[in-house]
Hints:
The protein is an alpha+beta fold. It contains ten helices and 17 strands. The longest helix is centred in the last third of the chain and has 22 residues, at 286-307.
Amino acid sequence: MSEVLNHFLKYISYDTQSKEDVEVIPSTEKQRVLAEVLAEELRAMHAQDVRVDQNSYVYATIPATMDKKVPVLGFIAHMDTAPAYSGAGVRPQIVKQYDGGDIVMNQKTGLTMKTADFPDLLNYRGQDIITTDGTTLLGADDKAGVAEIMAMAEYLLAHPEIPHGTIRIGFTPDEEVGHGADLFDVAGFAADAAYTVDGGALGELEYENFNAASAKVNIHGSSIHPGSSKGKMRNAILMAMEFHNMLPVFENPMYTEGYEGFFHLDTITGSVEEAHLDYIIRDFDEKKFAEKKEFITRVAAYLNERYGKGTVELELKESYRNMKAIIEPHIYLIDIAKAAMEETGIEPIVTPIRGGTDGARLSYMGLPCPNLCTGGHNFHGKYEFIPVQSMEKVVELLLKIVEKFAER
């Protein structure tokens, strides 16, 4: 069994699901457990400056093995898994030498991952694919990234004859709930540049991401017995429906792809008296992003004009920005990663992230930080899978990037 696989199977056994709308970091105490496990492993490898801070950020250093001064390079991944699906009691199964057919994930329930639904499976004939039994997510987002960085660190620390500069390692909590970079110690990390290892299919290389905002909408109605409500009742549920129906129908994630942005209604709750809608707003283009925020603000204003001041309360909050503006002046990071991929037999796929990573915010905090693939697919759900060989290739890629930085 490969070292990266050993690491991965160990890490997914820990439930590290983060939680929305919690004001402290980490949002769940169980993330602290894996943080301490990783720190102990790093110490056992003889990494230097290993520490876990009070918020469960893990930091470590692989010391330079050469006198030549080269840029200090960082690698970062997150430890938490998404709130969208359970990460407790993960039962992985490894489909050896996958034959290209549908994969029965759970014999008892008959749950099957079909190639008709997930044609990417067909790219991995003959490889070993890790899935779950369908009762949990797998956790490759981003424990695959954690495992790949740890396997790279283990190899470098066991082979001090390999020339390289100083390498920093960072593992973050709460990335899935938008807080992974909040308390990251950029100054203490002291890297000139870094890569997050938090992407998808093998070959993905990303330095563009959405501009992102959240919109919380509270609608205040008036509940009166329906038998005597004429001219008096104001149904908050109906006003919530009206609010949503005023947004552009096709600017919805189910209709968008590539560089297209959207309004996504994530949750809705309510009664006649009160209704609540939570949206996320996304766009790559700064101008279109601003227009989306202005549009949803105008919808709220219109309904307040129609139904009375204070009927609709809108709270808009920016989450992260497109890192492209920060990375382009450091485009050598992309050039190095592309060259490293090509030299390790990986076809580079430069693509925009239809989401965000810690790297987007870290870039704006002074640490240029594009995103590398992990090899995983179908994150945040029961159909998540990752080929073992993809993880092994990513470890090769990280080592090759280290090598190329040593040549600078």
